[in-house]
Amino acid sequence: MNIGNLDHKLNQKMEAGELVSPVLPNGLKNYLIDIDGTITDDIPNEEPERMATCKPFPDALKTLNKWYDEGHVICFFTSRTEEHREVTTVWLNRHGFKFHSLLMGKPRGGNYHWVDNHLVKATRYNGKFTDLVDKEVTIQVFKD
Question: Under 8 Å CB-to-CB from 112, ≥6 apart: which residues?
Answer without folding.
Answer: 122
